[in-house]
Amino acid sequence: MWTTPGKLRSKGIIGMNRRNIRYIGRYNSRKLYPLVDDKLKTKLLCHEHGITTPALIGTVITQFEVKHVTKILQGHPGFVIKPAKGSGGKGILVIEHVDGSAYIKPSGAHLGREDIERHVSNILSGLYSLGGSPDVAVIESLINFDDTLTQYTYEGVPDIRVIVFQGYPVMAMMRLSTAASDGKANLHQGAVGVGLDIATGTALRGVQFDRPRHDHPDTGHELASLRIPGWGTLLELAASCYEMTGLGYLGTDMVLDRDHGPMLLELNARPGLAIQMANGEGLRPRLDLIEQQPEGVDAASRVAFARQHFARRAELISSADPAPA
Amino acid sequence: MSRLPFYFLVGFLLIAGIALSVHRHVAFEVPWTPGEQRQVWEVEAQVNFTALGDPVMVNLALPSTQQGYRVLTENTASSGYGLAFLEDQGSRQAQWSIRDAAGPQQLYYSVQLLVAPQAVDREAEPPPLPREIAWERPFDTAASQVIERAQQRSADAVTFARELIRDFTGDRQGENARLLLTQFERTPLLVRLLNEADVRAREVSGLALDDGRRRQSLQSWLQVFSDDGSAVLFNPVTGEQGKPDNLLLWEDRGGAVLEVQGGTNSRVSFSMIQHNQPASTAVRNQLAEDTLINFSIHSLPLEEQALFQTILLIPIGALVVVFLRVLVGLKTSGTFMPVLIALALIQTTLLTGLIGFLLVVTVGLIIRSYLSHLNLLLVARVSAVIITVIAIISVFSVMSYRFGLNAGLTITFFPMIILAWTIERMSILWEEEGPKEVLIQGGGSLLTAVLAYLAMNNPWVRHITFNFLGVQLILMALILLLGNYTGYRLLELKRFKPVTED
Ligand SMILES: Nc1ncnc2c1ncn2[C@@H]1O[C@H](COP(=O)(O)OP(=O)(O)O)[C@@H](O)[C@H]1O
Ligand SMILES: [Mg+2]
Asked: Is B167 touching A (CB cutoff 8 A)?
């Protein structure tokens, strides 16, 4: 039922308190939060820095515009409506395709025009944002995720979370949506987390609701064979978010689009700790190592460094070359 | 960034807090526990005299804090008289005055004295020796013989005084002593003789405290100063040395106890009762002296004191919340909402409060789920929930009153806006994350509130926070330390368990 602090420490697990004080408090300047807490701002920032994100279809800012939302949506086969200041998958409505006047969710549920309008109105009134402050609805195009991933996910786009510490990708996991998580890949809503080897992008182990898991609960597909295509580019994309935001301890959510490759979905200034469970390993040794590295190294070298040092022991033997200084 | 200044600050707060508290405990005898009983004497002095129809001025010596007793409060009753408290070189007096008065007059002064073993005497100046003492014959020879006899059998001022008094008591009373007593009052005589032998001494007035006694009068006592300047008290009749425990020195500067101008037949008599008080009340009654270090809530009017009693408890609630969140990892809805609920629970008592809270929130959630179908804007919706809460509370109050459950009326102590926000948050949580998360966070909040309530309602905690302001600094230091804790939370030991099982 319980473990001891000693065991957790020897595994290098960091707890909430340490994350908040030692990493978020020290490396994330508060004035940078708005950049990542507002998905619209993040999107515009990414655009400036040439980082690809799902295409923006439009925004709804006032209740007055709610009546015209279907006009914005016209001609888009699939789209996602989300609150700009939402978090944890709250208030995200994924519409896979439109059939006449019916909007169809990944689960197959049909929504009418009024349902869409009510959802947008709720977003604007702050139902899903922190502290209930008024918000903006962001509408972006649906991601067509890479075919290789189809068997690993259920009714939703899997996303890849990479923790980037001072520009170094330190740990990664893939989050697979399940029936429980309703087409969204947020772990506490029941998505499955699969730890990924930083060196190769292959699966390490899986967890759901903080407990180990070897297969997908809905598709039944085993998780061990999971392998992310284009892993190197994805890591470099994640690493470059450090320069873009200036946040030292960052959670990047990425997706693999069939046509456009790796894309940045959103950034997180307070990434969760479940990634340690998915990797079966604590963040502490990796963060300690990065803290000793000099600053001003470019993204490509940082990725190379991480891939070499954070490879899991088994893989390390095959790619054994001397560590760079 | 160095942590040194931080630990310095925490250390400073801790030391200052502890020092302030210990100071209050030692210097003001504020006990560490509320249950301790303290003996309190209530002594009333009644001044009687016949006024002659002229301006009247009455001076009455007043007791001060002294070895064994601490003055708490004092009151006077004297219709028509002007009153002033005079203080002169450590001796205190009440001065009553009136333009014209005739016939029998009565003035009252009463004082509450705390029996305080640690209380100490004020500095006493030895009186100066009179320049010359004149004796008439044949008393001069008698006096010098008595003095010589005592001197032979003594080593210093105190032993001399003891031997001298012994000569005037009981069967040891010599011929010379008897002769002198025919001419002089006993105590002034002893003072005279002591002074003659170059020993500083004076007559002081004491009151023997005896529960329930009325119409008592003061007795004179002999205060003798030893060669090093310290004062020793002697019973002039028995020769006993030292101050009895039940003796209150009413006037200890050798002055007059009562002086009346414009009146005759003046007399002061005393009545006294003893009762036990909880130590905290005794402390509350303590006179507030206006020094900074004695900065005390007790100097405020009673009503503000009651308010402060609650305010000073909030940091305790905050500490409980910080503790449960940082060390245990409990989830609550709204950071300090549990403290507010705990404050309300203090007014309502635990069980009625919990039942009332759950009733209001449940009914509120049901009504709120209907409101969510109406597609309202957030502000309007929360306002509607507030009105709903008020309606529920009114209905419950009226119903419980009708059924004779007066306890139900206390439900109005719950802060309505907080209740409304709780309902709003819970209902969003319900829609978003399902009933399980509502139970987790709602349960966490209630558990935190109950623990905070238990801590804040603990008599000892109430006593300590109210009487020792230094404790606030200690609480501050503890909260700062907790805010700096990077270790694991208790619940994380469970959450992360699977990682350690390989
Ligand atoms: N454009 C999109 N296309 C398809 N699915 C999406 C899209 N945007 C978000 N999602 C789904 O919703 C989940 C949460 O989205 P995200 O933008 O990370 O918001 P949050 O801050 O709430 O986590 C993603 O993991 C993904 O499964
Ligand atoms: Mg996300």
From this structure: no
